[in-house]
Amino acid sequence: MSTNIGTSEDYTARQRYSIMISAMLGYILDFYDVLIFPFLLPAIQRSMALSLAEIGSLQALTLFGSAIGGALFGVIGDRLGRKTSLQLTIALFSVAAIISAFAWNYWSLAVLRLITGIGLGGEYGVGMVLFNEAWKKGSRGLGAAALQGCAVIASSTASIVGIWLIATFSDEWSWRIGLLTGGVPILLIIFIRFFMPESKIWLEYEAQRKAGQVTAEARTLPLADLFRNGLARQTVIAFVWLMSYMLCYYSVVSFIPTLLLRDMHTPGDIVRTTAVLLSVVSGICYLANGFFNDRAGRRFGALVPALFWVGSLVGMAMWGSQLYAGSKTEWPMFWLYIGFGIGNVALGVTGVWISELYPVNLRATAVSTFYMGGRGLGSIAPVIVPLAAANFGGSLLNGMVAVALPAAAIFILASLLLPETLGRDLSAKGFEGGTETDATMKAASVTSI
Fold first, then answer.
1. Which of 65, 166, 303, 389 is deepest in the core (most CB within 10 A)?
2. Tens of pLDDT, residues 287-323
3. How many angstroms separate the first and last alpha carbons of the chain?
4. Can you give the pTM of this predicted structure?
């Protein structure tokens, strides 16, 4: 295989930052749509007179659609280019989000949320791969953490907008306006079309493939290729790793608004203030974790936050049922909620770690499929948490912990089993037939962008 494949050095600073801005905005708007939906569910339930099971299925369908979209747009990203795939996925979820605001019954909303999820599924993986291929490897972990940390912007915005809509408008109008805001990303396509470059690694790889200089790729079934050439073990572990993260995350995030507002009767302004503060703390932790991720390794970036998960979930089981009594600092759930949010920053290492595990011809497929496949399986959280709660006398909090805590333990185990990839070269010369060469094991010196 020829080794003359582009690297991050081939980009100007302007090109790299345009890629980062596109990826950040896409991810913020993607995650915003996912996170505002739980705040809108009570209004949807009352407006359409739906059962709790039907409400849970709407969230589940969105996440399930993400799994389909992850595989679909990941393959498109590897076959037709990162930029093309990114534009298509944003167009699909933006249009579907806008139309879903005009749903007239449960089934129309369910179908539209499924389509929205399919569109959402491709944005993260393709954007993350393009970013990692353009960014310098010595600061790739910090950059990816900053990109992933945009989740806190999406989270705080979703909580502020969601609570404001519910307090300001009727049930019928609040959720429709909320879903309509999910169509904003369609404007991002213009920026991507004119300002964001295609991955140079992918472009040069494609040129060499068409010229017959690349022999490692049969271009048969992309998903099957993830299990070939010695990749099967890490593929299984990586998928379980992301699946367990998503299951833990959505078991708590999907129900925390309902738990605090409905079951614990917490004032809306306290929930909003806590969510905003959590976003600030999480943003700082994302950057700190990314900094150490570039020095201590990818495994470090996953394990340390996961320990916060375990501690907060155990604390929720013991003290989380105490109601707010006028002081946030004396309210156990305030600290436990923030502790869980710190654990969420483990997500910051996922995109860069998986990008470094796979060669250029499978990279977008791997990142998109694993991330969104994990999110898709995480879609069972809105279904199994209520079932678990029923076994604990109807306690939603105990149901959340019963599902999330084992998932956190599996995430920790999988993090210990994945190979360390710090300093790996993402160009084709770092891989030969899908397996790493000696060159990929050399540690990179830490450089600035």
1. 65
2. 999 999 899 999 999 999 999 999 999 999 999 999 9
3. 29
4. 0.77
